[in-house]
Amino acid sequence: MSSITIPYHPQLRREARAEWLFRGLTVASAALVLIILAGVLMALCVGGWPALRTFRFGFLTHEVWNPVTDQFGALAPLYGTVITSLIAMLIAVPLAFGIAVFLTETCPLWLRAPIASCIELLAAVPSIVFGIWGLFVLAPVLQHSVQPWLIDTFGDLPWLGKLFRGPPYGIGLMTAGLVLAVMVLPFITSVMREVFLATPRSLKEAAYGLGATQWEVVWDVVLSNSRAGIIGGIMLGLGRALGETMAVTFVVGNAHRISTSLLAPGTTISASIANEFTEAVGTLYTSSLIALGLLLFVLTFTIIAAARLLLMQIERRGARV
Amino acid sequence: MSSIRGRKITATLALGASGVATMIGLAFLAAILWTLFSRGLGGLSWDVFSQTTPAPGSSGGLLNAIYGSLVMTLLGVLIGGPIGILAATYLSEYGRTARLSTVIRFINDVLLSAPSIVIGLFVYTMMVVPMGHFSALAGAVSLAIIVIPVTVRTAEDMLRLIPQSMRHGSAALGAQPWRTITSIVYPAARSGLLTGVLLALARVSGETAPLLFTALNNQFWNANLNQPMANLPVVIFQFATSPYKNWQSLAWAGALLITLFVLFLSIIARLISGMFGARENRVE
User: How near does any CA of chain B get to the CA of A3, in Å?
Assistant: First the structure.
């Protein structure tokens, strides 16, 4: 038995060679996606190694950030990153839920597309624009009206009060959280809207048939049917909020310290890197900033990966139906 | 069970609250755009396009920053766009059902939302440190790395829209897969692929974080790709946080320019994909 060979004709052979080349190019490009991820991870590990070796686990638990004495701990930026993102989620999730309900249930049909486009427009605004808007418009408003009111109203309460003490700076963790909330709002909204729309019509009609009000249909049928998708959307928004750099750098205040008050200036991982990286002198300082980057990457990677897995599962289930 | 009246009141209140939430969201958009236009238009003048960035106190424009931004984003898209389309070609044509494709799609989705500042750190250690200096080229590469996942995502969706029967028809005529892809699939998906690249361009033209320590900034006119180059986002960052009034007003003008550019690209992309969708429907 002879093996099949390409018939001897120069044109055919050229075609086969071109096929091999083109296929190779597409495979290499696809593999590049994996290589980039591996490269980012490796570069951050190598660059952050001196700092991680020097401070070991102390890097995660120390608040001190002193370039003069070469003492670096990631606790303050880590705290700031988590707190600002939590504030953003507390504000953005209910708003996004409301907007998604409005766009899928309450809104007149002809208005749905324009409003949805407007909310998507918010996602197209570059993050640096959110930053200067936060610094020049939002921060003064918060400083002169919202924050004094918060201090007067809640400042004297026994436990809650700790969150709202100190002078109203305008810039700080709360302002950063608010700007982040506006930034992630369109992303969470669009995921929620999509999963709401995917609710089977028959389920909703059955609920209406049993005499449920429109709100009961939303709350008991649509919401419980799309729980996994909502969690996926929230986590996707959280991943964005954790890694957002420019908008936060403008308004967070850039102070390496942890204070219980939400009105106080703080810093986040990305803001620290953006502010200090080009000015960092010495191996340990630069390395500590890269180690911060590694921490941020691992944190966002975990959350985004979990969110994507969740959303992929839903897609697959949807395909099966 | 609560009374019917109670349930109706709850429904009205809750759905009313959803309307309020939408108003709040739209109010934020309106507030941002209003500030941007009112302050940006004030800072906009012919000087912005004809002069380079000034020293504090003296007058000037954003010419070098506009040039740098255009060069770096275009270069970034020129590098990242073809790679992204080729990778999408693998995912959609050669390895549609391969297990590797599932992994690549997943990793690509993760890269899509990865913090861009981390990409900046990556390019810094890979290019800036070995070369010994900041450069526009490093800036363009960091933008290209952001372009790739965006293009892969949209291009794969667009290629998948092309009906299999067209590929089968081409194969039946004896064409190799690469010929089918380049002369049948790509032309059919042309406007979709263009939309994807335009969206990627829109996405990176506002990116600041990865340029901070790759392209850095440059007070002066520079067209050398091997040197630090001014770019709008970093200039806006530097000028907006400065105490000088003329710098701040230039920052607003720059922010307006970037936003208008991004909105323009998004609208064009939407128009093209709208035409694409309309043609698809007509075929059916």
Answer: 20
